[in-house]
Amino acid sequence: MQFKFYESFLPTYIPLTIVELCLQEHISYEDIFSNLDLSLDDLRNKHFKLTYAELNTLTLNCITALSSDELSIKVGKYIQLHHLGIIGKLLEYSPTLADALHILERYSLLIDPTIWFKVEQQDQLIIIHYRKMIPLGDTYQFNQYSQEVLSILIIRLLTNFYDIKGLQLEFEFPTPVYSRKLNFLRCSIDWNKPETRLIIPIINLEKKSLINKKESEFYQLIKQAEYDFKVFNSIKKNWIFQVLGLIYSHINKPLNTKDFVKLLYISRSTFFRKLQEHETNYEDLIQYVRMDFASKYLIQNRGSISSLAYYLGFSHPSNFIKSFKQCFGMTPKQWQNKHNETI
């Protein structure tokens, strides 16, 4: 089973924003577009789409060129509502905080299909789970960077429009040396937590926007976003891309199908029917993502095989080794040695 995404289908909103930041920082055009047959005019064309490989290369070029300990703060502060297309407009016109959270959860794929949001209620708290999904198992060295950018962006946007009290931010990473520079965010911050999430006391949920807005404009935008959402998911490649990304974002603890389909806003029967169209099933896709991730991870020599096995959700390293051998015809160690010899 192989999924290749050579088609151009990814929006340019966020990549264009990071490119503009690079240019503002006097980074050369050649460095930004190295190894790419792209131009700034391409990215500024609202109908232009990127391939998955182009998105990865462009993002890596920009982040490498902007390299600094506080990169996430710089990028998170730079992105504004007008950089986010229809999502930015919807957030601006959302009558209540509950509406704004629904926009993030349902329509974020319209600006970046590799971003995942899930909003849920627990006791007297609203919890926003989110992450940058890395589809197809590509290892991504800027995981903490992407989580911090998303956190900064969400908190900035929400607190600009709503008077939110008692906001809490939890990161799944160790405390960075620049942690104090995140104190400009209007929330408490804790590190070394099980996952990255934003916690809002439920008393804030029905908060009205601080800015008077025309609800008629909001509902017109909702109609357009819903249409775009359905068009995106009607395209087979787009849909399976999102499915693989969701699996990746839960790679160490795969969701059951009941919870998984909720994130796709479809029924279980529709989910299984669509998988049949791709001649696969949910369990095989989980295995595909795990093995694809493992194969790349091992080539990069990042940690022990046992730690990789547990990270991928296997109950014991022996189970991982058996699955890997079934997939690639050799053990993880043999795979690692083979590719080290060719480097």
UniProtKB/TrEMBL annotation:
Keywords: DNA-binding, Transcription, Transcription regulation
Annotated organism of origin: Acinetobacter pittii
Keyword Metal-binding carried by entry: no
GO cellular component assignments: cytosol
Boundaries of every HTH araC/xylS-type domain copy: 241-338
Protein name listed in UniProt: AraC family transcriptional regulator
Molecular functions per Gene Ontology: DNA-binding transcription factor activity; transcription cis-regulatory region binding
Keyword Acetylation: no
Pfam families, per the entry: Arabinose_bd (PF12625), HTH_18 (PF12833)
